[in-house]
Automatic annotation (TrEMBL), chains A, B:
Keyword terms: FAD, Flavoprotein, Oxidoreductase
GO molecular function: FAD binding; oxidoreductase activity; RNA binding
UniProt protein name: FAD binding oxidoreductase
InterPro entries assigned to the protein according to its UniProt record, in alphabetical order: FAD-bd_oxidored_4_C (IPR004113), FAD-bd_PCMH (IPR016166), FAD-bd_PCMH-like_sf (IPR036318), FAD-bd_PCMH_sub1 (IPR016167), FAD-bd_PCMH_sub2 (IPR016169), FAD-linked_Oxase-like_C (IPR016164), FAD-oxidored/transferase_4 (IPR051264), Oxid_FAD_bind_N (IPR006094)
Organism of this sequence: Nonlabens dokdonensis (strain DSM 17205 / KCTC 12402 / DSW-6)
Domain spans labelled FAD-binding PCMH-type: 34-213
Gene Ontology BP annotations: respiratory electron transport chain
Domain of life: Bacteria
Amino acid sequence: MNPSQLFNSFLEEGQILTDKALEQRYHHIWHMDEPLKALCVLLPKNTEQVSKIMKVCYQNDLPVVTHGGLTNLVGSTETIGNEVVISTERLNRIEEIDKASRTITVQSGVILENIHNATEEEGLLFPLNFGARGSAQIGGIVSTNAGGLRVLKYGMTRQLVLGLEAVTVEGTVISSMKKIIKDNSAYDLKQLFIGSEGTLGIITKVILKLEELPKSRNAAFIGFDNYDAVVTFLKYCDSKLAGKLSGFELIWKNSYVQMTSVNESVRPPLPYDYNYYVLIESLGGNQFNDQNEFQNLLEQALEEELILDAVMANSQSDVEWFFRIREDVNNLVDFMEHDQHFDISLPIPYIGSYIEERYNSLRKIKGVNQVYAFGHVADGNIHFMVGKSNLSTELKKRIDHCIYDGLQKIGGSVSAEHGIGLHKKDYLHLCRNEEEINLMRLLKTTMDPKGLLNPRKIL
Amino acid sequence: MNPSQLFNSFLEEGQILTDKALEQRYHHIWHMDEPLKALCVLLPKNTEQVSKIMKVCYQNDLPVVTHGGLTNLVGSTETIGNEVVISTERLNRIEEIDKASRTITVQSGVILENIHNATEEEGLLFPLNFGARGSAQIGGIVSTNAGGLRVLKYGMTRQLVLGLEAVTVEGTVISSMKKIIKDNSAYDLKQLFIGSEGTLGIITKVILKLEELPKSRNAAFIGFDNYDAVVTFLKYCDSKLAGKLSGFELIWKNSYVQMTSVNESVRPPLPYDYNYYVLIESLGGNQFNDQNEFQNLLEQALEEELILDAVMANSQSDVEWFFRIREDVNNLVDFMEHDQHFDISLPIPYIGSYIEERYNSLRKIKGVNQVYAFGHVADGNIHFMVGKSNLSTELKKRIDHCIYDGLQKIGGSVSAEHGIGLHKKDYLHLCRNEEEINLMRLLKTTMDPKGLLNPRKIL
């Protein structure tokens, strides 16, 4: 088949990539050297073109995989060769920033960092933020219900989407483009498309909720020797700082040592004397007042012996230094022969003991060289980086099972932020029961009866 | 048919109400004098019994209407006589409060006020709050995605539900009872049941997210002469108070005059000199500091001429006085011959002009005696109370159309908080397009192929 014949009545030549042009594409930014396997890549510019593409694909039984910024971590954008790839890169228009409604309306291919820059110019904040901000597109972000560093204060992506437009497998445009916060007029259809990884429809446009740009930012590193004290301090901070607490990141000692010993730009703010290190952040309305409040909180917590040690950022460059330590995971991964990442969720009270047990078990596995844990403890979300000596499937599975197997019993999840995609399918049953999975299949069959949307993913 | 024969193998005698016992029931707390029309009322005590009831109803093609606290405002609990009514009143167990996870696990029949009392004893807050808190049950609250007074700071019900258990029309228990904030393991099934008014399944249990109990509460009434100044001040407050701003309620002058002239307990905090009155509230971590901050904010706003006048609550009894004015809508309704209520949502920039136009048009309708507007302006949610001289359908429809017809053009909603139920069905097409409604029908047919769950409601 020459796919261009199917689409060239409504797409221009440069919007249909095949052959050589196709080979220069890839399925993930970490696999740029592997040419993309696909029938063609289509570059629609507007919703109408996406709709027409889907009508053709539906009529011709062509599987479709949507490509955004290709930063997904669970293989959600992988292809095997028989698919039409729809890239959202030309759906890159910021349509409107409404300062009074505090909303931004964007096509799904707009890059997160461009949303940040555009809103900040208007004194507004789109609070979602994570490492891949320079590549990740909002369509993919919404499709995976991304989390990141400030979920504690502002919520996951799901909480930040007011309006949404998506195209169904048959090419119908479902447009729910509202700017309103409250809308209980029947079923909230956008919830179907948020977090379903392109398996129920293709997101073409969203209206996002913005916040006032914070006028203050404060941060501190704090040392603890036991996990229960960490939880007590989380509640203490949340109570004292009311709605200002925006980050509460926990780093296990060995991760902290590694994260702060690579070079001078990540030198340790606190000595290596503690078992747990917490990075807290507050965002508020007045730098002078908030800094005083933050400092008083730390002094009082020291006095009350809630914490063992604390160092506060004295300047914005200190704040950046502190966050560089937490954010630059390359400082962990660069020294590994091979690496395997995890993104699990579990109830806060279990985190201390669960992670300790995993550390102990992982270290007994032959081939495991390093284990680093850290995470958004206030959200119950812990990331693991495991360094290993080889890429064998057997070793990979042993490590997977070691981390995942205990989650079912304590009501955890094998995916807090990253989704299921291809790579976590085998473990989905550990956190979703048979009845849930059956209902998911029913939804999938209903919305995509031919199974054309992002095939093989999730279920 | 004698329905007791269908259910008495697994329900005790007192759990099946028919005949005389049935006649003492009603479909809404405002219609206690109208005996309930139904085949029977069933009072299950646990999820298993709900599941068994649904299996029997499904096999016998019996329609089912779920009754919670019967405070719904759109006819969602009405019956015509051929239905089995499942009342959740005996599903009234608070199963657990987990202080470290900051969650409460409850059966769906627990009354909101009981959740408030139980969590406050543990130093925690379930932030959802509204007038019917003494009757409304959490199952109904989740089924209608209730809003209320503190959505600005804490979100709608949807944002407060972490885990959910529901029974499908066939009796299958979909149990997603997780305490975790982040869970991107495939489709988020609870979103289907939240806000779908019992038409897709019956909620039997939920896990709710709790917050630290605020240590400070401050409030003020503020006067404005034009709507744009209100919006500017909203942004100003939200920026200065960062995450502490918890309420921003707008009251139109004539509503304010009426609300504050009924008796001494609701005497006016500000004179009747302004066009708009705003009641703001902040919740924080330290009463002394927060009160100072709040007072400084008001003084600075007066100095910068952002506001015309302000009076701050000097004590918690002042705060209660201020909120009594806003909350006691009986002070508006009691003086009406007949009344008609509205709960619309619209983008914030349009509110001023839209409401003014509605005031003008409504006052021209013969039979309309009073028009009062007020609402959660920060959420774009305005309530109307319209007083009228008769109960004719013609007058009702004229008033409905006057308020609803302009919403489509500006991207509003005919239901911000209350849902669609029976009473707003005719206007759903004004805020949801054909494609959306078709997709809703598809979901309904998929989840409830025989149309047994809360028939005639929503669609």
